[in-house]
Batch of 2 targets.
Target 1
Amino acid sequence: MPSDTAALTGNLTGQCYCGAVRVKASAAPFTTAYCHCSDCRRISGAPVSALAAFAPDSLLWTPALGVGVSHSAGVRRWFCTSCGSPLVARYEYLPDQSYVPIGLFDDASSLAPQSHSHAGSALSWLHLRDDLPKSTGSGRGRLNDASDQND
Ligand SMILES: [Zn+2]
Ligand SMILES: [Zn+2]
């Protein structure tokens, strides 16, 4: 669990680029992670994504999320229908976790990533110097463990 106070107290608020969609987290995220996969690159347009994993029912979306879209098996994603910002993703292999881009949150600085997923797909010119645990693949074992410990 992130150690900063805003994240710990579950007072995180955020919004999409245009402000049409807002989110409030009533509980701290299970964990936070960079993701270097090519899907995240295309969705964000950025060289790496940073995501926070929440219990789905701890997130209050205004307006409520619709049905979302699925372009790959086992993955459903929601975007702002006005500005296109990615809002949240659900993965069948990570049950009971909702992944929200850390950049949506007003206090993103309190949500430092705790690991690297898909480090095997990281861009060769991207240099993040840290000692965080790295998974060549999704890191689903560690990510699932994070929510199990919070049950
Ligand atoms: Zn928007
Ligand atoms: Zn990814």
Note: The mean pLDDT is 92.
Target 2
Amino acid sequence: MSRQYTIPPCSGMAIEAMQGERITVIDTDGGQVADFFAEALDHAEEFLSAGVTIDCNESLRLNVGSIIYSNLYNPMFRVVSDDVGEHDLLHPCCRPEMYEFFYHNGQGHRNCLDNINACLNRSRAIIHPVNLFMHTKIDPNGSITVLPPLSKPGDKIVLQAEMNVRLGIAACSVAESSCNSGSCTPIKVIIDSVK
Ligand SMILES: [Zn+2]
């Protein structure tokens, strides 16, 4: 059985996945970031933590075989395969204040924080997702540069759920920088039972 979802540009969607199921996130048009967040299905106080993921993997990168951890240091996902190899664990979800800070256009701007909070019916003050396909270059001096994603149309990453989760995934709303290659496009998600 396979469930397929299309997240429209600048939108979010909640999707449930059970332990052992495979989650394929597809950049349908290429060059688009997916803000990937999740909470444990029956206890939302346990949720995806990019910081804990950096800590446990001792790496700023996600590789095939890497684990994505919860705030309670439990495995939530394992990277099964990856067409792209560049994802971001550093940036919080975009939000009106971010658009205001950089572009002075925050009022009423679509944004991943509100889109993920809305689809999960939460009001988290900040969300640090895994920014799938986001290409952040880290210089040896510590400065960072956001470059266009390396993902081409149809490129995908496959994750296996290591616990029952409710995903909150947003097709990122930034059109002002290279983050999404200058325009916002959809993200497709497929959930497969392996057995
Ligand atoms: Zn965003």
Note: The first helix runs from residue 50 to 57.
